[in-house]
Amino acid sequence: MQRKRFKSGFILSSLLAAMMIFTGCSNDAGSGSNASPSASASASPSAEASGTQSASPSAAAPSGPDISKKVELSMYLPSDGAPDAKLIHEELNKMTERDINATVKITFLSNDAYNLMLSSGEKFDLIFAANYMNYADNARRGAFKEITPEMLSAYAPMTAKEDKDKLAGGYVGGKMFAIPTLSASFNYSTYVVRGDLMKKYNVPDIKTIDDFGVYLDAVAKNEKSMIPYNMGKNDAWTLCALYFGNNNLMAPGTPNCTSPIALKKDDPSLQLVYTFDLPETTAFIKKMKQWKDAGYWSKNALSNTVTLNDSFKNGKNAALITSIPGANNIYNELNKSHPEWDLRIYPAFQGSIDRYSYMAGGMAIGAKSENAERALMLLDLLRYNEDYNMLTQYGFKGTHYTINDKGDIVFPADSKYPPNAAGTWGWTNETYTKVFDGSFPNYAELLADAKSRYEPNPLVDFSIDAKEISDVTTNLSNLFTQYAGPLYMGFTNDVDAGIQEYKDQMKKAGIERYKEAAQAQIDAYMKAK
Q1: What contacts 257, CB < 8 A, 6 or more positions away?
Q2: 514 CB-near residues (< 8 Å, 6+ apart)
Q3: Which of 458, 413, 438, 365 is nearest to 135 (CA)?
Q4: pTM recorded for the entire structure
Q5: Selection from 118, 144, 219 nearest residue 375 by Cα
Q6: What is the pLDDT of residue 254?
């Protein structure tokens, strides 16, 4: 799932508070264009695809939902929007007015405005929600309306029939407050490297961390105008992700390498351990110090404001560690401007793969909404009806996209409704998601690899209630930035002493209370499952 998200990588203050992480992708996700929740058997709602009119909303069967009164729904999506979004919304309203006697006013808003809106108690009908945007905490604070099983059955019957594991992330405290997306995202990092440099210095294919080090070493010794892995000050998470992903570790809940507490995947008791008590952590940081001392990244990395991505695009950096969607975006852009670089993408994690909760995206109903029933009907259409889904995700066929002979989706360079620009991630459905034309050659292979190595995580939908330990989470967040980040980047004269200093500071900050609270919540969560 490719998306533009309103978050800054692994911003620790929010991540530790909710025990979640950054972050884009096929299971059977439901039926197609006959999924309208209206009582009438409507024809395809696409004006382009349909030449027949659906039944009037007033003709609904007596046993169906009462949609005789026309309503306007308000929907808020965190996005900058797209130039042609208004045209798409106008077409959407023709469809919704016909099928459920409703229109929807969609408003784009910034991340700050999103948080302010939820904290102010403003009235609205629908809003994007996600774990990384503190969904669980917002639900606990009463920002969203509960969605009961009876409501789903009556107004969102397709969602009501969905697999339980795809809906589980929407539950907080045993009650559903949001409907998760229908697209699985995997915690699967990749190495993005330059094939031209691999050929030039006879570097073999990259299969392990040490292989990646061989590539970085070749660049460091031979390409004096480049920095092999030119990290910025906020890129330490790429290295700790590499550590967690190759050492059988996971944080409680959604994958989060910045967590000071972790679980070993092969421990069925799900007992938390201190990340920096593990000998594997010390060994990894010692390796990173060796890499730093060998010049694999700048001595000024802690103050460098240029991101890895920007440095890579500018030809000053020889490698990236990023997600499959991130790799695809980079490849799609640079394969056009620098095909001679021969970009190659390799898996960065060995062993089992974690999946993010389906609440990596979803939609919630406002606590003060007076149109919850119609909002649910709209969501069922957006999620399961192919015409609704394709229109809102990709725009008008022939104008904003075409489908090539391989079945890949092709976007014009000057598209005014580019993919992922209109904040529609809350109802992404894998059934209708297309592979982008221009994807890197082994894109489908890596997606298949992620799915084949995925092992269910019993805590994937778990999130810590930080209400009683908010002071500790804030302190630990600051300490990661001050101590752990530089350690992962190898900036220490003495690894053992540096780790001990970090551990001492965490103890003063209350990490023991944090770990005890997290373990108690995990135990209670597992008992209730």
Answers
A1: 10, 21, 237, 240, 241, 243, 244, 245, 249, 251
A2: 260, 261, 469, 472, 473, 476
A3: 365
A4: 0.81
A5: 144
A6: 65
Distance CA 62, CA 59 (A): 9
For tokens 């919540």, the residue is 521
The mean pLDDT of the chain is 88
Q: How many residues does the chain have?
A: 529
Residues 75 and 340: their CA atoms lie apart, in Å, by: 45
Distances (CA, A) of 3 to 185, 325, 420, 470: 11, 8, 5, 30
Give the pLDDT score at 63. 60
Phi-psi region of 101 (alpha: psi -120 to 50; beta: other; left: phi over 0): left
CA distance 359 to 20: 11
Q: For residue 149, with 0-12 CB atoms within 10 Å meaning exposed, 13-18 middle and 19 or more buried, which class applies?
A: exposed
What CA–CA distance (Å, rounded) separates 499 from 492? 9
Instruction: Give Cβ neighbours of residue 91 (< 8 Å, ≥ 6 apart).
Output: 47, 391, 396
Domains, the chain, in order of start with CATH, read 25-185+358-442 (3.40.190.10), 186-355 (3.40.190.10), 467-528 (no CATH)
User: Which residue in the block uniquely carries the two structure tokens 């024809």?
Assistant: 43
Q: What is the rounded CA–CA span in Å between residue 438 and residue 329?
A: 9
By the 8 A CB rule, do 329 and 436 touch? no
pLDDT at 409: 96
Residue 22 confidence (pLDDT) above 80: no
| Ramachandran category for residue 64: left, alpha or beta (phi over 0 → left; psi -120 to 50 → alpha) | beta
Q: Is 266 exposed, middle or buried (0-12, 13-18, 19+ CB in 10 A)?
A: exposed
DSSP code of residue 359:
G
Find the radius of gyration of the CA atoms of the chain.
Answer: 24
Give the rounded percent of residues in the chain with a pLDDT score beyond 70.
Answer: 88
Beta carbons of 260 and 484 less than 8 angstroms apart: yes
- Please, which pLDDT band fits residue 25 given cuts at 50, 70 and 90? very low
